[in-house]
């Protein structure tokens, strides 16, 4: 991990802890003013706490002191409740209880909140955060989809998109379930596949899920640099790990990359590992299903056919419309 990112992480969690410490001080001042006895009890708790630690370090029995401490804490909780406060009103508060706003669990592993922060940082570095502010469900414009039935499809682009969005809504509602559902957006260029992918990404990021977006080109570039590059491995390792650990991997423009034995093997590894782990995937491609079969290995095509819900996008190119 590069030094700049380390400083960003430290600053991020420092701000969170400082905010909660200031809020705790405010709550404490409020209670001390209303219930002076609580302040006296806290002073006594601090004194006896130091004494208990000293006796323990000296090898002396501190059980009596511990009982007194427990009694004082019970008195404090009772006073808070009697005066209309929750019993834990003066306890430290955290944005993340799992790591207590440090970013790391007791076993030294990264907390999910840190993974989310790192994923968001990757979005910002790729300028995706700016795009998500423009492309989301709130800015979705139904009027750009034609209501004219397409003879070869038997449905209008408007009605088809309604069906697609219904499936997407269900996907989002069931996202936390290990149901094996993944999405395959396929159809011609400029039909809203990337826009809807961004809508999904924004909705999940707002729910604090980790989402990684890669075009097929940037994915293969990352994989090649990971395997063959000479640059620092720390940042590459992080980006590579997130391909497997992020709650959702969005792979956009599948089929535009140069395919060979290496890319086929790597794409299969990512898809297969995530599917086995119950991690969701969204693939977007301009290819028809038979073209996917012709370009990729049987193993890749099999994983897609068996584990993805295919959603067909139809209609005219919308890239010049205000989606």
From TrEMBL:
Source domain of life: Bacteria
Pfam families: IstB_IS21 (PF01695)
Record-level Gene Ontology MF annotations: ATP binding
InterPro entries in the cross-refs: AAA+_ATPase, IstB_ATP-bd, P-loop_NTPase
Domain AAA+ ATPase: 179-311
Any GO BP annotation: DNA replication
Spans through the membrane: none
Name of the protein: Primosomal protein DnaI
The species this protein was found in: Urinicoccus massiliensis
